[in-house]
Write a structure and sequence with these properties.
The protein is an alpha+beta fold. The protein is built from four helices and twelve strands, in the order H-E-E-E-E-E-E-E-E-H-E-E-E-E-H-H. It has a two-stranded antiparallel ribbon with strand order 1-2. It has a two-stranded antiparallel ribbon with strand order 3-4.
């Protein structure tokens, strides 16, 4: 049992020595060679770093020719390297991010103060849209012409929408029931006058027709009044 404990203690001591030795020889991430684990113990730096007083300092590539980026991209420094990032859409060339770092404003943008801001073409141009049946819609950096209300696009032009046709009403479609009754009475009145005129001449045929028409008119009038009286009576109940 004592021998087993001795082996265990020796194994733990060996592992501890390995850990200490490994830590003693590890360098900071920016160092390729060092004399110790501290940042100020570097002897040689990795790419993108420069040695200064035994310390590896990041190189700002954006301040050198190394960090040259193409047009409409700008240099962004990172630890040990750099990135080329896109300029703001308002810029033609830039020195950093945002519309305030533009070298020149893009088409559709205007320098306002220190920033390139969107130009509202719909307010600046009297005839931004040439068609009288079009309306101007401002967009970021530009504008578009949409068809006005009541129009739609067809083959690149605005065409008026066809309104549903309203069926024309007949001459007597708007006449109410009471108006029809008045017209009927007027018609019978005219007919009776004509028959009375002819009957006055002594013609028996027209006299018979006149008497029959008067009787029919009286019967219709009395039956109609009777129906109304009966209806009013029933409603009163």
């Amino acid at each position: 049992m004592g021998l087993w404990r001795l082996h265990r203690a020796l194994l733990q001591a060996a592992l501890l020595c390995c850990l200490v030795a490994g830590q003693a020889h590890s360098c900071p991430h920016a160092c390729m060679k060092c004399s110790g684990p501290e940042n100020n113990q570097c002897e040689e730096c990795s790419t993108g770093w420069t040695l200064h007083n035994n310390t590896c300092v990041d190189i700002d590539e954006c301040g050198t020719k190394v960090g040259n980026c193409p047009v409409n991209r700008y240099c962004f420094n990172t630890a040990g390297s750099f990135e080329c990032r896109d300029c703001d859409p308002a810029c033609v060339g830039c020195m950093g991010s945002g519309p305030a770092r533009c070298r020149k404003c893009a088409v559709g943008f205007t320098l306002t103060g220190s920033k390139c801001l969107d130009t509202d073409e719909c307010s600046d141009r009297v005839l931004a849209c040439l068609g009288l049946d079009q309306i101007c819609i401002n967009t970021i950096g530009s504008f578009r012409c949409d068809c006005a209300q009541g129009f739609f696009h067809r083959d690149g032009v605005c065409v008026r929408k066809q309104q549903p046709r309203v069926q024309e009403k007949g001459l007597f479609e708007d006449i109410q029931d009471d108006e029809i009754e008045v017209l009927q009475q007027m018609f019978f009145g005219v007919l009776l006058c004509a028959l009375a005129t002819l009957a006055a001449k002594g013609d028996m045929v027209y006299t018979s027709l006149f008497i029959g028409a008067v009787a029919a008119m009286a019967g219709y009038w009395l039956s109609d009044r009777g129906d109304r009286l009966l209806g009013n009576f029933l409603k009163g109940q």
